[in-house]
Amino acid sequence: MCGGSAGSLDLGFIMTDDLFAVAKRCLDCADPAQKVALTFQAWERLLAGELAPSTGASPPEPIGEPGRPPRPRLVHPRQLPQRGLGTEAGRVALVHAVAHIEFNAINLAWDAVYRFRGMPAQFYRDWASVAHDEARHFNLLSVRLAELGHAYGDFDAHNGLWDMTVKTAHSDTARMALVPRVLEARGLDVTPGMIERLTRAGDERTVAALEIILREEVAHVAYGTHWFRWCCERDGLASRATFRALLDEHMRGKLKGPFNTQARREAGFTDEELAELEAGL
């Protein structure tokens, strides 16, 4: 849990101007509504110039599980039932699945802020802005779930996004390559198809939410591209070769298509990278 009342949480934020401590507080909060509220508050304080990374902060703790509610139950992806979008039950399950991704994405962004030290100020601002966007996305989908008679936690989910976050906790380069540029970029590929099928089913309200999310996720993947290349340049690494090596290590060398090449270009993928992905190299 987050601990205390809303008032005490506000006081806790007022008592520290350390962005790392605030990021950890957001990351550890288990209640979704409070995590969103804390994230909104943190972003407002960062914009106001009231938060900054502390040079005297303790090193980050070893990565563990983030704050999350008891439900949804986390299962292996193969245990999740496949539901079509032609029924309301299938559409509700889809909205819940995307809400779960967005909830995880709040944690992913705050962990990047908390874990990777000595980065430029813009790095922290970028990933705090991503946390803020993901919190808004989660709220959008929570409202839609309520309209459909459900709530976050009503369906099982998987933990793939956080699993990769744990695997890349040792390296800002690997994190930037594999979370935004691989896992989150997958959303750029599959969301247009979801929108098309939901449009055919007449679910305009879910379509409207997904269109907002798709548009804003392009920028999130672009942050990953920018900071991945920044890390490579810092360390004297060739970015294309490094990305390929990380795919070989963690993704068996290949990503599943088809790819949304337009959105990926907007997110910073080069024509050479896209050609390699299409060829399965």
List descriptors.
0% strand, mainly alpha, 66% helix, globular, 281 residues, Ferritin
Question: Can you give me a brief rundown of this structure?
Answer:
This protein is mainly α and 281 residues long. The chain has a domain of 195 residues: Ferritin, core subunit, four-helix bundle (Ferritin), CATH 1.20.1260.10. The protein is built from eleven helices and no strands.
Write the layout of secondary structure elements.
Layout: H1 6-14, H2 19-28, H3 32-47, H4 88-115, H5 121-147, H6 160-167, H7 172-200, H8 204-235, H9 239-250, H10 261-266, H11 271-279
Helix pairs in contact: 1-3, 2-3, 2-4, 3-5, 4-5, 5-8, 6-7, 7-8
Shape: globular
Strand content: under 5%
Q: Describe the main β-sheet briefly.
A: none
Given this structure, which CATH class of the domain at 85-279 is correct? Mainly Alpha
- Per DSSP, the total helix count is 11
Give the beta-strand count. 0
CATH-assigned fold name of the domain at 85-279 = Ferritin
Structural class: mainly alpha
SSE string, helix = H, strand = E?
Answer: HHHHHHHHHHH
CATH architecture of the domain at 85-279: Up-down Bundle
Mean pLDDT: 92
Terminal Cα separation, in Å?
44 Å
Description of the structure:
The radius of gyration is 19 Å and the shape is globular. The chain is mostly helical and about 280 residues long. It has helices at about 5-15, 20-30, 30-45, 90-115, 120-145, 160-165, 170-200, 205-235, 240-250, 260-265, 270-280. The protein starts with 5 loop residues before the first helix and ends with a helix.
